[in-house]
Design a protein that fits this description.
Elements: E1 21-26, E2 30-35, E3 49-54, E4 58-60, E5 63-65, H1 72-86, E6 95-97, E7 100-101, E8 109-110, E9 117-121, E10 124-125, E11 128-135, H2 138-147, E12 149-150, E13 153-154, E14 164-170, E15 173-174, E16 183-184, H3 187-194, H4 196-219, E17 222-233, E18 240-243, E19 252-256, H5 272-278, H6 298-316
Parallel strand pairs: 7-8
Antiparallel strand pairs: 1-2, 2-3, 3-9, 4-5, 6-9, 10-17, 11-14, 11-15, 11-17, 12-13, 15-16, 17-18, 17-19
Helix pairs in contact: 1-6, 3-4, 5-6
């Protein structure tokens, strides 16, 4: 994507006024809209759907940062759409249409958010983040150092930051509100809350998605260290459906395979450069203090954007357009 197409900070703020759609929720990155049924004549032509718009907002350490990362929302949406196609034989997804239109009340994706928005089935979402880990890092590494386990799963001794696990593991987490921490929990906790059969289905689908994605990424010279998925139930069919985003730099850790070296933090195709700046003396920010992070410098914004674009291009084999 050329710099001439960059929208600056236009999509880094809050919800937009989208004719034919009514804003109902904003998360750390995405804004959710439902059809404005009176304006659409009482029904949406595609059924019970929602509009999911990926903003350019960036979050780290449970804070939404400023400014946003230009084109980030487009990367997240387009990469998710590409992955949904790669995974279609494993699990259905929630996408109904991405067709954009300049007509204000036809129920399609409004032109202003074309490329960064999807019309999706309205699902009954499971209240759990489904995490698969093939490598040890992040919160999993912190747990392992304390107990030798990750969410109750015993791991071999002697592992270090970036170690490949003997087999990928399912390490779920409870979903947190904006500004709160997700909490890693054991499989037994998920089974207790959702039922053993549902927990097993979510685990098996998560590990199947990870296995396919890890293979695809590895063929492109990228290690998929871990990923976070969300599933819901399609009320019309009862099927378990993959929702939200999938296998993007926001929800996954992607590492260059030729630079992998266990025992240290790995270079990554995500917001690690941004995290590194925030925790450095250059930012002047005390993560432990109850204060908002400072504004991101232009160089950090530019570098982060470049890493997102590189992840998209290396995985899909095509530039973002």
């Amino acid at each position: 994507m050329t710099d001439s197409l960059v929208a600056g900070d236009a999509f880094a703020g809050g919800a937009l006024d989208l004719p034919g759609w009514r804003h109902v929720y904003s998360g750390k990155v995405r804004d959710l809209y439902e059809p404005d049924l009176p304006a659409l004549g009482g029904a949406h032509p595609l059924g019970d759907v929602v509009l999911v718009v990926a903003a350019d907002r960036m979050s780290a350490f449970d804070h939404v940062l400023s400014p946003g990362i230009p084109d980030k929302g487009v990367v997240l949406t387009q990469l998710s759409l590409w992955w949904f196609e790669q995974l279609a034989d494993i699990v259905p997804n929630h996408v109904v249409s991405v067709e954009a239109s300049a007509e204000p009340f036809d129920g399609l994706v409004p032109d202003v958010v074309g490329g960064r928005a999807m019309i999706c089935k309205r699902l009954q979402m499971y209240p759990v983040e489904c995490v698969a880990r093939g490598y040890l890092t992040g919160s999993g590494l912190a747990e392992y150092r304390e107990s030798g386990e990750v969410t109750g799963i015993r791991l071999p001794a002697g592992l270090v930051d970036g170690s490949r696990l003997p087999d990928p593991i399912f390490t779920p987490a409870t979903k947190a509100e904006v500004g709160e921490h997700d909490e890693n929990v054991s499989f037994d906790v998920v089974a207790e809350r959702l039922g053993a059969d549902v927990a097993a289905t979510l685990r098996d689908l998560t590990l199947a998605v990870y296995a396919r994605a890890e293979q695809v990424a590895r063929e492109r010279g990228i290690i998929l260290a871990d990923t976070k998925l969300e599933f819901g139930v399609d009320p019309a069919t009862g099927a378990v459906v993959l929702g939200d985003e999938v296998l993007t730099p926001d929800s996954s850790r992607f590492w260059p395979a030729d630079e992998w070296e266990p025992g240290r933090p790995q270079p990554s195709f995500d917001k690690q450069v941004l995290r590194d700046w925030l925790t450095s003396s250059a930012s002047g920010w005390d993560r432990a203090a109850d204060t908002a992070p400072p504004a991101l410098p232009a160089g950090v914004v530019s570098h982060t954007r470049a890493r997102y674009l590189e992840a998209y291009e290396r995985l899909t084999g095509t530039p973002l357009v």
